[in-house]
Amino acid sequence: MPKSKRDKKVSLTKTNKKGLLLKQKIIEEIRNSLSKYEHIFLFTVDNMRNTKLKDLRNDWKDSRFFFGKNKVMAVALGRTKSDEIEEQLNLVSKRLKGQCGLLMTNRDVIEVLQWFKDFRAAEYARAGFIATKDVILPQGPLEDFSHTIEPHLRRLGLPTSLERGVINLIKEYQVCKKGVALTPEQASILKLLGIQMAKFKLVIKCHWTKGKGFHKDLDVLSDQETDNENDNDVVEDEDMEEDES
What we know:
Layout: H1 17-33, E1 39-46, H2 50-59, E2 64-66, H3 70-77, H4 89-93, E3 100-105, H5 109-118, E4 121-123, E5 135-137, E6 140-141, H6 150-155, E7 160-163, E8 166-169, E9 173-176, H7 184-193, E10 198-209, E11 213-216, H8 223-230
Antiparallel strand pairs: 1-3, 1-10, 2-3, 4-10, 5-9, 6-8, 7-8, 10-11
Helix pairs in contact: 1-3
């Protein structure tokens, strides 16, 4: 009787014993999940936040998310037509590039696509994020801040002084400019001001259905893929939080 491709042992080089066991575990779990779920969706992530990914798992308890090394997930599915676990899964593997993950589910395809199209979560921008608007602070008191934070504000570059226990901005200050990448200091100031410019979102790029095969869902680049293309620096294998569900 021929041996199932699901049971095929995979050689993973250039890794220590602990790392090897972890990679083998991910491969085994992905392959075992193939028998439980009808659909596999490949998605990219804009403004990745691990806390948001944990929230997603709670919303999709009947499904399974996988995040980790793209190359390991590709091995689990099969990188070529000759070693793919199911027909046309190699077409999914070939698209595992950058910051992305897999969703395995039995929910209806239309429901999944619509859910992810609608899903957005505001987040604080980090250094390197392209500012979406100008933020200018007028001269005068910053009454929302405790006086104890004044030295920290000065370290971040704000021209402040402490007058009768109230932080005062000595002159007008532009925190950031629309279209320009944020510095670490600017990102910290925006967070202190409670201004959330970033949007955490997942973009479905393609899906695979048991018995039907591969389907491309989107040719348009996500926000961060566009940034990478512009910088000529497309990340091939980005680490994400490993699957915990």
